[in-house]
Amino acid sequence: MTAKVLQRAAIALLGTIAIPAMASAQETPLTIGMSTTPTTLDPHEDSSAPNNATSRHIWDSLINLTGKSSNEPELATEWKAVDDTHWEFKLREGVKFHDGSDFNADDVVASLLRARDKPSQGFASYTRNITNVTAKDPLTIVIETKVPDPLLLNSVSRIRIISADCKDASVQDFDNGKCAIGTGAYSFVSYQPGSNLTVKRNDSYFAGPSHWSNVTLRFLPDDGARLASLLSNEIDIIETLPADGMERVASSGNLQIINGQSSRFAYLGMDVSRDVAAFATAADGSPLDKNPLKDVRVRKALLMSINRDAIVERIMQKNGTVADQFVAEGYAGHSDKVEKVAYDPAAAKALLAEAGYPEGFSLTLHGPAGRYVKDAEILQAVGQMFTRIGIKSKVEVLPWAMYSDKYSSGDFSFFFGAWGVNTGETTNPTVALVATRDEKKGTGRYNGGGISDPKIDEVLAKASSTLDEAERKPLLEELSTQTFNSLWLLPMHYENVVLGAKKSVSYTPRGDKYTLAYEVQPAK
Predict the structure, then answer these.
(1) Partners of 132 in the beta sheet?
(2) Closest by alpha carbon to 61, among 260, 207, 216?
(3) Which positions ≥6 away from 309 have C-beta within 8 Å?
(4) Which residues, at least 6 apart from 126, have a Cβ–Cβ distance to it below 8 Å?
(5) Cα-based distances in Å from 489 to 114, 326, 485, 509
(6) Can you give the pLDDT at residue 15?
(7) Where is it localised (predicted)?
(8) Which of 302, 322, 445, 465 sits in a 20 to 30 Å window from 197, CA-based?
């Protein structure tokens, strides 16, 4: 039995001793209505926004990634590059896990290696360059990378630090609470998959206790249910305020709308690898002898048929901004060389004919329901626009828990996706969405279209190992140019952040769209 296990047993025994309850006046609960359901509490299983936002309540990381994508100390108080491929991190003293056991370097080593080696490879985009992690002493760790990695600090900010005792634990051990033990602002109380997570304040948190004594995260992907819960005062703050409910919230005496800008880039992906696409047939339903989506002319015709301005204006009700590439102007990697494709259905039909499809073809479009802003409605609109140029379209939407693995694994021919570009530059989305899928290199984990462009892979390798910002800048721009002039992804929009809340609370929206209880404050 390890020292930590013995310590936990002793603490569990102490827990049976009666302790005076806190005065009821100090008990201030908070309920958040989340717009998407996490798939698990295991913080290393899958890197998606709902999973990562949920896990941040229970676990900390070495570095805190702020709402503006800057790196601040968390479990690490300082760090330095020893040389091009070695980073040293000094750990915070006196930190304890929720069960009272001590936090030390062994926990960091176990966590980073677990995230790197997990069969799901959910965090491969962030751990792909980590060769080894070693404990120099109980409060110092060293990370060795394969190549110089300019984004290592950002990468480790994504990885939650669990107890080393749980390094071999199953997903179920986290979901049932056995290993849902962190050092974070809140400790686990209960979890009902698909319904809610309840946590309580960690009064010994090193950064100081939260205002909220108990927090319930309710998973409400249905827009109507989420809005109704806010309007009925059941919930204090909700994510992704439905556009059709804004007037009711604005006219309410005790509710408010909170707006902000996010870094989430929404796109349409396609199967560009298979010779025959599973969900594409001839217009009459007969099999096609080749995959039309492999032809850049077809991909351009599809994009030309989509009235993105109308989608943002009408369907999203201005809760987005039309995008042409991963990042907007002013961010690292935005390229002036990316061709802007205008809405032109007549030209799209001509281009389809030039590509050999004068009668069009049939295509099934897949997407999630309730994961992104108006995702199902957007996909239906895209299907209608495709039909007008001769692409007979069928739309199928699935709950996020069913959809997420399928789209990233390449099960669909045409699909709706999005990526939070929280690094503010282009290697991060390129590694995950566009780079050739390679589990050993950790690239292409969410490359659902099977993209494999040697030029992009070559530029990405250089950009990912170049520390000098002046040398790195043109490489980042080239990633955008190559990706979007080839239309490996069809760019749609950047999502805005729109929340609804009681006037009794205040919140500053984050670029990653996370809603974190410990950042919600009582209104002044």
Answers:
(1) 144
(2) 207
(3) 322, 343
(4) 47, 115, 154, 155, 156, 158, 159
(5) 31, 10, 9, 28
(6) 32
(7) Periplasm
(8) 445
Contact indicator for 301, 389 with CB cutoff of 8 Å: yes
Would you tell me the crossing angle of helices 296-304 and 345-354 to the nearest 10 degrees?
Answer: 160
The residue among 204, 1, 215, 214 whose CA lies nearest residue 98 is: 204
Phi and psi angles of residue 496, each rounded to the nearest 5 degrees, phi first:
-90, 165
Among 150, 79, 72, 159, residue whose Cα is nearest residue 124? 159
Torsion of CA 509, 307, 399, 285, to 10 degrees: -170
Give 156's contacts (C-beta < 8 A, 6+ positions apart).
Answer: 61, 62, 63, 112, 126, 143
The DSSP call for residue 510 is -
φ/ψ of 144, rounded to 5, equals -105, 135
Residue 235: name the closest of 243, 247, 225 by CA: 225
Q: Is the pLDDT of residue 7 over 90?
A: no
pLDDT in tens, 166-194: 999 999 999 999 999 999 999 999 999 99
pLDDT band at 26 (very low <50, low <70, confident <90, very high): low
Using alpha carbons only, give the angle 418, 440, 416 rounded to the nearest 5 degrees. Answer: 15
Q: d(Cα 142, Cα 333) in Å, to the nearest integer? A: 30
Residues 444-466, mean pLDDT to the nearest whole number: 96
- Tell me the DSSP string of 239-253: SS--GGGHHHHHTSS
Residues 395 and 436 sit within 8 Å (Cβ to Cβ): no
- Edge to edge, the sheet with strand 76-83 lists 76-83, 86-91, 140-145, 130-137
Q: Which pLDDT tens digit goes with each residue over 399-437?
A: 998 998 899 899 999 999 999 998 889 999 999 999 999
* Distances from the Cα of 320 to the Cα of 21, 105, 309, 310, 314, angstroms: 47, 43, 10, 11, 11
| pLDDT bucket at 13, cuts 50 / 70 / 90 | very low
d(CA 478, CA 496): 26
